C-alpha cells in the first residue's frame, strides 16, 4: 500500500512542476506537491502549491480565478501522466481565463494532442477553439423540447493560422 | 488509442439516432447556450460508466429524450462509443442502453455484464471511478482547491 | 410580518416576468415565482421557474449553464426593483454566456444604467465591456508581491459603436 | 445617487494610496488574470461593511498589502468611497480603516460607530446584509439555483 501510494505520488510530483511551466509558458512558474507526513503520506494530507510567474510563494487560496484554473489544469495533466486515459473531455475550462492564458492553454493542449492524448473541449471562445483540428457544431431546433442537431467541420483541410507561431517568450 | 465516433439514440436533447464525429486529436464542441453541448459530454460520460448524479439527472429514465417535460420519445435510449486502438487499428464498440430503471451493456453488439464492460474499459485506460479525464462544466477550479486530505484520497484512488 | 413579506413578494413576482423578457429580448420567455403555501408563504418555500425562449416548462435544474446565468440575473434585477441599491458590482457574470446572450445582457444593463441604477462590472470579454461608458484598466507591476496599477479611460468621448443598434428582433 | 470614486490605501494588491475612478453610469473593470480586478471589488465590498469571509481572507489583517507573503506594507490599510447624492449633488465620504484586528469607521472624516455607519448606508439604500447588489466571482448561477426554503429566507431578509 505504501509502495503503490509513493510510486504514484513521486511520479506526479516530479512531473507537475515541468507541466505547470509548460502551461504558463514561463520558467519562473513553480508547482509542487508535498505530503504533510513524509513517513506515512497516506495517513495525512497532501499540500499543493503554485507560484504564478513573477509572484512569490503564497497560500493557494490567494490565487485569482484565472490563476486557479491554470493550477488545476497542471495537476490534472500531471495525474494523467501517471495513469494515462486515452482522451480528455473538458467542458468550458476556459471560462475564467484571459486571452493570454487561453492562448497558452490551447497551445499546450494542441502540442499534447499530437503526441500524448486525444482532447475534446467544449468552448464558447473563438480564441480557444480556433486551434482545434475539428469543430463539432451543435445547433438547436425548436420543438416541444429542444432538439440538438450536429454539424462537423474538419479544420485540418484549411491552413493553420498558428503554424508560424513562435514559442511564447516567457 | 482514441475515440472515433459517438452514436446517440434518444439521449437527452438528441432525438432519434445521430452519429457524431469523427473526433480528431483535438476537437472542439461549439454552439449557443442551451443547444446541447454539455448533453454531448453527458453522453460520452454515460457510455463510459459515469453515475447518474454526475449527469445532472435524478433517475436514469430522465436521460431519455423528452423525459423532463413528461413526453419521453421512447422507452429506451442508448449511447455507443467507437474506440480505435492505436497499434492494431481495431475498433471496439462500447454500448450502454437505458431500459426502464437500469442500464444494459454491450461490447461489439454482444451483451456483457457491467463488470466485464468496466474491465474492458480499464484495459484501454478508462477508469471512470478516478475520473481524472472528465471535467464537467464549472468544476475546473475545484480540482486545485481540494483540501490536503481530499488530495490524499485522490492519490489513494489512482494508485 | 405577513404583510411585509407579501408586499415584497408580490412586487418582485410581478416584475420578474417582464425583466426576464427584457433580458432575453424575447416575449416568449417566461419567469414566475410561486409560494409553495399560498396562505402562509413565509412558512414554506418559494419556487422559481423560467421558461427559456422557444422551450417548454421544465424543472430549473434542467437549465444549461448559460440559461442559469440569465435566470439568475432576472431574479437579481427583480429584487433590486423592490429594494433599489444605488449601484451593482458584478464580477465576471458573463463567464457562461455565449456572444448573443452577452449582447443582450450588456444592452439591458446599458439601458437600465441610464435610468435606474449605476453598474460596475468586471469582465474579460470585449463583447461585454465595449458597451460601457468608462474602462478601469488594472495592470500588474512585478514586485515582492503583485502591485496593481490603475488606468481610467472615459469612453463617452468616443462615438458609441452601438448607438445605431436596433432592438434585437426576438 | 451613485458611487463617484474609491480611494484605497495599502489594500490587498494596491500599494500605497490610489484614487480609482471616476465611475460612470456603466463602468467596466478590465485587466489580465491576477492583476487585481476582484481585489478592487473586495475594496468596494469592504468599505460597505462586507464581512471578512466574503473578502477571501481569514483575518482582517490579511487585507493589508503584502500580508499574505508575510511582508505587510503597513500596520493599517483603508478604503474610502465617495458617494454623490442624485438631487442635492452633495458628496458623502464613507471610510473604513483596518487597524490591528478590528476596523474603524468614518463619515466625512469624522469617526463614527459601526451602527451609525451602517444606518447612514441604509439611508442611501445600501444594505450589505441582504447583499442583493454584490455578485462575487463564480457565484452568479447560484442565485437562481437556491432551493425553495433558501428563497423564502431571502425574501424574509429583504422585506
Ligand atoms: N432528456 C432531455 N430531453 C430533452 N431535452 C433535454 C433533456 N435533458 C436536458 N434537456 C435540455 O437540454 C438543454 C441543455 O443543454 P446543455 O446543458 O447541453 O446546454 P449547453 O449547450 O451546454 O449550454 P451552455 O453553453 O449554456 O452550457 C436544456 O435546455 C435542457 O432542457
Ligand atoms: N493582501 C495582499 N497583498 C498583496 N497581494 C495580494 C493580497 N491579497 C491578494 N493578493 C494578490 O492579488 C492577486 C489576485 O488578484 P485578483 O483576485 O483581484 O485577480 P483578478 O484580476 O480578479 O484575476 P482573475 O481575472 O483571474 O479573476 C493574487 O495574485 C493575490 O496573490
Ligand atoms: Mg454547457
Ligand atoms: Mg477575479
UniProtKB/TrEMBL annotation, chains A, C:
Compartmental location: Chromosome; Nucleus
What family classification does the UniProt entry report for this protein? Belongs to the SMC family. SMC1 subfamily.
Q: What is this protein called?
A: Structural maintenance of chromosomes protein
Amino acid at each position: 500500500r505504501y509502495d503503490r501510494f509513493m510510486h504514484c505520488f513521486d511520479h506526479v510530483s516530479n512531473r507537475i512542476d515541468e507541466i505547470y511551466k509548460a502551461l504558463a509558458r514561463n520558467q519562473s512558474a513553480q508547482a509542487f506537491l508535498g505530503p504533510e507526513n513524509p513517513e506515512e503520506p497516506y495517513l495525512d494530507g497532501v499540500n499543493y502549491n503554485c507560484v504564478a510567474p513573477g509572484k512569490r510563494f503564497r497560500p493557494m487560496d490567494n490565487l485569482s480565478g484565472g490563476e486557479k484554473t491554470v493550477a488545476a489544469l497542471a495537476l490534472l495533466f500531471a495525474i494523467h501522466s501517471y495513469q494515462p486515459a486515452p482522451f480528455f473531455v473538458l467542458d468550458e475550462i476556459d471560462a475564467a481565463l484571459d486571452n493570454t492564458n487561453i492562448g497558452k492553454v490551447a497551445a499546450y493542449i494542441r502540442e499534447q494532442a499530437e503526441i500524448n492524448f486525444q482532447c475534446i473541449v467544449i468552448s464558447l471562445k473563438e480564441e480557444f477553439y480556433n486551434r482545434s483540428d475539428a469543430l463539432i457544431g451543435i445547433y438547436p431546433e425548436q420543438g416541444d423540447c429542444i432538439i440538438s442537431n450536429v454539424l462537423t467541420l474538419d479544420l485540418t483541410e484549411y491552413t493553420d493560422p498558428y503554424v508560424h507561431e513562435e514559442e511564447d517568450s516567457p | 488509442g482514441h475515440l472515433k465516433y459517438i452514436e446517440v439514440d434518444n439521449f437527452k436533447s438528441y432525438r432519434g439516432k445521430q452519429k457524431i464525429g469523427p473526433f480528431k486529436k483535438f476537437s472542439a464542441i461549439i454552439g449557443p447556450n442551451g443547444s446541447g453541448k454539455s448533453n454531448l459530454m453527458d453522453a460520452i460520460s454515460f457510455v463510459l460508466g459515469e453515475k447518474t448524479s454526475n449527469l445532472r439527472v435524478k433517475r436514469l429514465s430522465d436521460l431519455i429524450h423528452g423525459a423532463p417535460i413528461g413526453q419521453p420519445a421512447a422507452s429506451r435510449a442508448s449511447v455507443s462509443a467507437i474506440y480505435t486502438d492505436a497499434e492494431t487499428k481495431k475498433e471496439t464498440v462500447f454500448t450502454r442502453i437505458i431500459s426502464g430503471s437500469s442500464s444494459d451493456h454491450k461490447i461489439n453488439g454482444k451483451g456483457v455484464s457491467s463488470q466485464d464492460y468496466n474491465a474492458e474499459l480499464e484495459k484501454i485506460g478508462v477508469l471512470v471511478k478516478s475520473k481524472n479525464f472528465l471535467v464537467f462544466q464549472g468544476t475546473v477550479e475545484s480540482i486545485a482547491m481540494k483540501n490536503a486530505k481530499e488530495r490524499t484520497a485522490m492519490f489513494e484512488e489512482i494508485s
